[in-house]
Amino acid sequence: MSNPNELRYTKEHEWLSAAEDGVATVGITEFAANALGDVVYAQLPEVGDTVTAGETCGELESTKSVSDLYSPVTGEVVEANQDVVDDPSLVNTAPFEGGWLFKVRVTGEPDDLLDADAYTAFSAGN
Amino acid sequence: MTTAPRLTALDALHRSLGATMTDFAGWDMPLRYGSERDEHNAVRTKAGLFDLSHMGEITVTGPQAVDLLDYALVGNISTVGNGRARYTMICREDGGILDDLIVYRLGETEYMVVANASNAQVVLDALTERAAGFDAEVRDDRDAYALIAVQGPESPGILKSLTDADLDGLKYYAGLPGTVAGVPALIARTGYTGEDGFELFLKPEHAEGVWKALTEAGEGVGLIPCGLSCRDTLRLEAGMPLYGHELTTALTPFDAGLGRVVKFEKTTNEGRFVGREALEKAAERAETAPPRKLVGLIAEGRRVPRAGFQVVKDGEVIGEVTSGAPSPTLGKPIAMAYVDAAHAEPGTQGVGVDIRGTHEPYEVVALPFYKRQK
After folding, report:
1. Residue % of chain B over a pLDDT of 70
2. What are the chain B neighbours of A61 within 8 Å (beta carbons)?
3. Domain harbouring B78, CATH code
4. B28 and B102 inside one domain
5. Above 70 in pLDDT, residue A126?
6. 20 to 30 A from B156, CA-CA: which of A115, B105, B218, B309?
């Protein structure tokens, strides 16, 4: 399992892309997707919602359990991935690509986001 | 106090296959090897291989073995033929269900009782206590057996290539001693998936060899190893109860909609059996004024009902979900639930499940959700 170097990560197992024109993409990591099992339902934040770093903004439901989705940053949601809503298994098959969850115009971010190496070490210890 | 989980004879094999393991009733068991949905679909369309060594085997032997079983259990075990099996239950004096069981008759005076892993000790203790006064021996055989199940439409073909036993002559709910891949096994045509399939009781030291032989024999027809996660969705689709969910000590078999397993017309012990008086009353209650009934629920949306969620109608709580999961076969979330008899009729309108504060619409249906084509 490799975590892309260009992304940053939270201890809640979300990833965050570098912002382009102030907009960053959010997803959950492969580690999290594997731990969840087959994702069958995704409730994502809606366009226009304000999300806050470290607070819940949706939920991911798998065969066995439901998990809260946390936002890694603060900002306004500009897009939710309709492909994932239609086919939640994308979260399992392509967590870093087609299985991204939402895009957010970042207005604030916490200072404890992890780089790929730090996240790999963190998730290996879980 | 924490105790280390028990490991089955196949533990190293599961880990080498990359299984996600989970604690289940004190055992470390495979939850899934890859995708639980793929495992589920393999059992429905091809074949799946399960390690069920956590189940509790108890051997009952002796001249009065059958008298003891008739007294201790709610079924009429006297009518089980040699080589046949029976689904039954063990109840308390007050009629509450201690466990659901399968009893295999292995010989004239030899029976094997298979209990759920979580209840194995309770059943063993109850049978031992109830054996007082009977010329019968109750033996804890939990360590004597590993249990491997091969389930799914391809399972007869797979097993045939490894055994001389007459599988065509082996009926559903029957078992016979034979050899599988050269080692002795009790071969039973039972399972918990809603599909045709077999359960193989063998010595733990033979488990790995038989697992590998089955894997090899099933390679060309799509057999894959399967974990407990898909076993749960398979049994749920098949409408089969799970102890701790649909069955508890708080319910009698009649409350659980399984009154048919209780046989009052027993010939042994002058008809006496543990729980008889309470169960007679429960039968009458179920006939005249059933409080709640076990029904199926199919979601119109995609949110999944879980055990303990409330079933609602017109703002009133009318029941409780006992098991729920996304159904791979139906492509929708499904659940079993106990609902007030007045709302239990299939097609009842306006029923919902409270999923974290939102009332999601559900359709009331008869169980099971899935029945295999024969």
Report:
1. 99
2. 303-304
3. 3.30.70.1400
4. no
5. no
6. B105
Tell me which residue range forms the domain holding B356.
293-365
* B25 CB-side CA count, 13 A: 17
Annotated ligand binding at B199? The verdict is yes
Task: Identify whether residues B150 and B226 lie together within a single domain.
Answer: yes
A22 pLDDT above the threshold of 90: yes
| Domains delineated in chain A | 7-109 (2.40.50.100)
SS3 content of chain A, % helix, strand, coil (to 5): 20, 40, 40
A81-114 pLDDT, tens digit per residue, is 999 999 999 999 999 999 999 999 999 999 999 9
ipTM value for the complex:
0.75
Question: Would the pLDDT of B81 be above 90?
Answer: yes
**CB atoms B233 and A63 under 8 Å:** yes
φ, ψ for residue A96, nearest 5 deg: -95, -5
Give the CATH number, domain containing residue B337. Answer: 2.40.30.110
**Whole-prediction pTM:** 0.91
How far apart are the CA of B307 and the nearest CA of chain A, in angstroms? Answer: 11
Statement to judge: residues B16 and B49 lie in one domain: yes
Backbone phi, then psi, for A35, in 5-degree steps? -65, -35
Rounded Cα distance between B27 and B35, Å, is: 21
